Amino acid sequence: MKRTKLFTATAMLAIFALVAAACSSDEDADPTTTTVTTVAAEEMGTIVDVAAGAGTFETLLAAATAAGLADTLAGDGPFTVFAPTDEAFAALPEGTVEGLLEDPAALSDILLYHVVPGKVLAADVVSLTSATTAQGSDVTISVDGGAVMIDGANVTATDIEASNGVIHVIDAVILPSA
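The structure corresponding to this sequence follows.
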């Protein structure tokens, strides 16, 4: 019985100490923490940097370079990129990627169809039915339960932040109407 009372008293004292510590003034906070967070935000890479670091967008980056868009996507933005993975490009009919790499104008048209000017986060995407792309046409956005689709491509990852926008990963290459 004495042990139970001692244990309860010790536990109450520990809880009191934790609550008191949690209620301490923000004036005691280390200003270095804010500086480190700010520096990290400033050093966040561009859409091109983030895509290169992911390792799953090699074909997209090669296509952007071939179309002369890599510098644009590394620019100020902000941009929202619906980024097809390497697997999405591999699923295209044989010879499609190679043919597009030889036609920079057509390639640019397709890639710009994956870019929406401005920063559109996932929370905003789900409330839209379409969005106007940098190519000039609209992509259709549909939501079924928790699944979001862009022109029939499944959105598989969202809100990958970059210093000049955001990336949403899709599982297919989307094509503008002819």
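The chain has two domains: 1-43, 45-170.
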